[in-house]
Fold these 2 entries.
Entry 1:
Amino acid sequence: MIEVQLLAVQAIGETFAGANLNEILRHIWQANTRLTLQQRGAIQDIAYGTLRHYGQIDAILHQLLNKPVQLKPLHYLLAIALYQLCFSKTPVYAIVDHAVSSSRKITRNPGAAGLINAVLRNFMRQRTSLLDQIKTNEVARYSYPQWWIDKLHQQYPRNYEAILLAGNEHPTMMLRINTLYTSVGHYQALLAAQGIDSEWLWGNALRLARPVAVEKLPGFSEGLATVQDAGAQLAAPLLDAGAGMRVLDACAAPGGKSTHLAELVKDIELTVLDKHEARLVRLTENFSRLKITDYQLLCGDAMHPSQWWDGQLYDRILADVPCSASGVVSRHPDIKWLRKPSDTDNFAQTQTTILNALWPLLQQGGKLLYATCSVFNEENNLVAEKFLSTHQDASRLPCFHATTDNGQLLPGARHDGFFYALFRKN
Ligand SMILES: C[S@@+](CC[C@H](N)C(=O)[O-])C[C@H]1O[C@@H](n2cnc3c(N)ncnc32)[C@H](O)[C@@H]1O
């Protein structure tokens, strides 16, 4: 467990230094090939869990310490040990003993081990009163930065609390069934035969009762199913593409929504574009697993079509723009601590620039679907309204779906927080 704790400390430290947790873990796996699957699972659980509950954990530490711990890795060691004490079934003595041993690997300072031991044992003794003391602290209660809580409170006065709490739930695993090769009902039977319960949500979306490694999914490598949130699965049907149409997915990698489009509509002329070459590698892997070969791949900047556009108009454009990802924090709890208050306005500027640049590429009568995985209004309805007010030839069509309120899906058990705005060129 010492190695598990130390690698979890490394993951938390690198996250707070500004890196993406998925990437960090990928590097940790590469650098530590002898880790067992169980150890990897434990490191992942501790790192994700600590970040999910970091507001609460940090507030408890604040109460327990007379002054902040200067050495950051020691602070993070206390944080992960507190996470384990509060949320795991590991025996208390094992957590504390291993944290003390881990501290000796972090520093030779003889006081460190004593501090770790004292703080964790004090927590166990005073747990109830400590939790009581931080009850009125919103950052501790919800485990989000205060600015994030305030923004949601202001934008969703009635359901901000539900949104915050939904982001702290363990995410459910959702699949998109590839109806080119199978049917939803048949695939559910294949899952049931493997002992995996599933529930049909809508379209080709299934929710699994528990997460499963993709290699265990029936026919995964043959392209029968794709892991994709049910909210993300609304994009392709909303775009309403038909056979023979020229379709551009302008921010396409890793290809979740464009592969769905290719599965749903035969004979579209599909162009997939992304600015980041490395992400396009994952896109091509996904297309090839699903045996989709008929598409044009472009690496380029959606803000500058003159660099990559062939001059022929598109009938449909999907702009699944870069965003704060505030609607998918249950899957990526690091986002809560990586974002800054100024990020939403910066994203909104980029999003508006991309929309403005793509609009001239759309055929008259054509449709453009604007999408984010954010719940912040600055990136969603405000961008859509500004776009409408500056484009006389654009009208906004309703996004018909039972789960959306004016295109905004709030995160919950059936889907993540997405936003869709569909525009038609008049
Ligand atoms: C939300 S992700 C897209 C997810 C993808 N549509 C899917 O469903 O799998 C946004 C993507 O936009 C790309 N991106 C960011 N800025 C861009 C730009 N200026 N032009 C084109 N792509 C960009 C990112 O590399 C990222 O892959």
Entry 2:
Amino acid sequence: MNQSEAIYEKASRYIPGGVSSTNRLVDPNIVFTRAQGAYIYDADGKRYIDYHAAFGPPVLGHCNPEVNARVAETLARVDLVGIGASELEAQLAEKICQHVPSAEKVAFCNSGSEATYAAVRLARAVTGRRRIIKFQGCYHGWHDAVLMNVISPPDKIGLKDPMSAGMTPEVVDDTLILPFNDIEAVTQAVTEHGPSLAAIILEPIPHNIGCVLPRPEFLRALRDLTTRHGIVLIFDEVITGFRHARGGYQSIVGVTPDLTTMGKAIANGFPLAALAGRADLMDHVRPGGDVMFAGTFNGHPLNVAAALATVEILERPDTYPHLFALGEQMRQGLGELVQEHGIEATVVGFGSVFLMYFMSGPVETYTDLLRNDAQKFVAYRRQLIQRGVYELPVNLKRNHISLAHTVADIEATLDAADQALREVAK
Ligand SMILES: Cc1ncc(COP(=O)(O)O)c(C=O)c1O
């Protein structure tokens, strides 16, 4: 038995399935014990170039020394006081309001799920309405209003596909599921249900099914429709926020939602998330306001310190050009390999996010991805893992490049991809 197996055996004796989050148990079931920069190391000492990146947070790379130093320095003087206003939170909120177009005020919590929960509750409160629209393929966390229709099987398309037992049916009923990039479907739903619609929530780029780019006119039409019908538009930028730009994808596409949720990359691996938006909406969550927003660990000083250090690094002029250039190098290299090997595949991505679907394009909505050869997708990634490149071996999962990755890392990855594709083509 190797070290990975020994650790997993002990973990599974005491933790259901051995892991604390559903998607963490995969085959091969490797236990990682160290992370540094662009690399993760398993319990038996093998090094991998990491693109899984814990589903997205370490945009600067693992254990960034400046972030860790700021956290250590903060920890030397405060752990959690948890009463009154906080200087660190004020500094971070100011930065978010400077960078994110929709952010006039910000409230901090610990996870993306908490942020989207609060966003939906706030939208229901300010509109006095109960229904929301979400899109097939988008993931917004584990709570009942949104936990449905992400990677659905073909027979569930167009139907409700709740992802857990124990969800409250009335809450599930209040969520309408529509196809992404389909403005006609949204227009029809708004015409039919407008007076009961509190919010439309979406990932502006649905990265939970890899990378499906929005048609810019789709986002603009959502903005127009929601404004006209008094519906709150929520951009869930938990992945895209701070990864693609300091101002999130909204700053790139030029469409400003009413509310924005952020998490993941904002604190480079420390558990911080945020709900931001129009001041008149956000003011409902003030103490004494009509919308409850609370949490013992909200705005924890260590996580806020990590976020401040992260955002300061992201403010440097070279950061996004580096991330985007490496993304481009990777996509171009993979595209050439696909051609050389004569494999039916489509390389997609945006900025530091990339992946390869094993199907021909175009990819504009979830149903297009039903053509993806999931077996090949996973087999290719298992081949990469054997060669020291870690891309999560789960269908449709995206990959993330960090500031710590180098041109040499991308070249090494493309070498491994060349060999992996040769195996898959056999
Ligand atoms: C777009 C999006 N929103 C919300 C969430 C939920 O965030 P968390 O896992 O921090 O609760 C995720 C998590 O992957 C996400 O990708």
